[in-house]
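The material for today's practical consists of a large collection of protein records. Read left to right, the backbone structure tokens trace the chain's path through space. An example says more than a description, so a record of this kind follows:
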Amino acid sequence: MRVLAAMSGGVDSAVAAARAVEAGHDVTGVHLALSAKPGTLRTGARGCCTIEDAHDARRAADLMGIPFYVWDFAERFTEDVVDDFVAEYAAGRTPNPCLRCNERIKFEALLDKAIALGFDAVCTGHYARLSTEDGLVELRRSADDGKDQSYVLASLTREQLSHAMFPLGDSTKAAVREEAAARGLGVAEKPDSHDICFIPDGDTQKFLGNRIGQSPGLLIDDETGAVLGRHAGVHEFTVGQRKGLGIDAPAPDGRPRYVLSLEPVSGNVRVGAAEKLAVTEIVAVRASWPNGVPLDGPVECVAQVRAHGGTAPAVAELVGAELQVHLREPLTGVAPGQAVALYRPDASGDLVLASATIDSTA
């Protein structure tokens, strides 16, 4: 097959590309330039998609002896990922930019261009597995639970997944680093990026404040209705947050307070005790079905609400346009704007059933 390998400049995408070459595919490497003003250097594990990353990707491609290009997706990335991120926070929701990047950039914009140029598949360094059942592709968790990225891929369609390759799905991160070193790849020990790539200094609050501006509001005790403090905008908070609330005085009971809900219209941020964060009901919208099959009736599954962790057994049902999820065990820190992914455990590993955007909780 003709394969386009998305090479970020990190160890995972480099090893994924090398495995595609070793498997006999006709591989071309491509690095996506996602920023109009990329920094020249990254700082440790902060940020990605810098000029340094592009150079690392090119050196890896040269070592493999494959063609390599840099494609400018900065404008599309700004519109579909950065602007969406800012708008969601301004509306009092908590988005996942990595999920949006996979959906809109790597497996929409990039895949569409790859197919138009005659490539059969896009290869990435994601930790997830693809299997085939009755000729149809299915998305599953990776073998490395600690690195599994099926959650941020769960919004992809069956058609998109049929043109995807995830060569690292059966590997652990430790094994990938060892293989990179054995192959002589200079990125073998390069640290992973742990921050939002377009906020390399890690200061999300400052980034949002510069773009949204101030929209002052009140911190309200959910139990008593008392005003506990003031803030510069709901974009400074997310459900479940404890630190940095700026509360003027301790609560009467002396217990810490957490963000329970955000009200962007009034500007109020409601805070309360930890037990009020417990969620057992989720209503989600804009559902996607990576295996191409919508839920038919109530389905026993496992729900996941964060990229790592945040899982509980559940019963899910599609009611009209809403995906209604009843959690058999409560979860905390579940925020509108996040994604809920549904899994069905089986002998071949957890199968991804659906993904949808959380609209409300109870």
Notes: The longest helix spans residues 97-116. The chain has three domains: 2-125+167-182, 214-276, 278-361. The radius of gyration is 21 Å. The chain has a mean pLDDT of 92.
